[in-house]
Amino acid sequence: MTNTEIIDVGDDQKELENKALTIPTQAQCIVVASSADMEAAERFHKDVKAMIKQIDDVFKPMADKAFQSHRAITGKWAEIKKPLTNAMDIVTGKVRAYIQEEKRKAEAVEARLREESRRLEEERMLAEAAELEKEGRHEEAEEVIAAPIQVITPTVRPDVPKYDARTFRPPTPKARVINKAKFIAWVAASPDRLDMVDANERALNAKAKSMGKSLNIPGVEYYEI
Fold this sequence. Notes:
Layout (H helix, E strand, L loop, with lengths): L2 H4 L4 H19 L5 H100 L3 H9 L18 H4 L11 H9 L12 H11 L14
Helix pairs in contact: 2-3, 3-4
């Protein structure tokens, strides 16, 4: 789709466009070799500037109207989708709550089984130590009592069917700078926040190149390599 198909270009606009296309050729033909030529070039420049304003006067109202239409359309677009996104949020919240509850239940069962395994292993070790004591093997009995209790931790998986984790995953917290000046002021107020910003070395090198040894920026050192 071409620009002329997107924009309804009237005869006046088309005339302006055709006229504008001839201006670069006229500019190429201008020769500035005298005071009179310079005056002519100045008049040409003013005429072109006036033509640019004329074009702006034609197209700016169209652009403003298109912007207002765009804002109205996107607003209605979002308004119609809102109940649907709200519905998805409601269901997503319920699914997340269910998954968390099933995980909690699995962890509770796993903890109970782990404690039961520990208890059984402890009873087995005490029984073994008691047998060794009966046989007079006191040192071996003490070694059995002193040995750490080895427990095989069971794995209990939540009773949740397979699902696409991307559908119900929690939102990822993120942050972005929307006011650079305020952000820099906040960082500068406390030294422990300095790791949040990096100096723009390319911009500083450009300053060093243009100012040389007269570079005087607080916290910045001029050097050469």
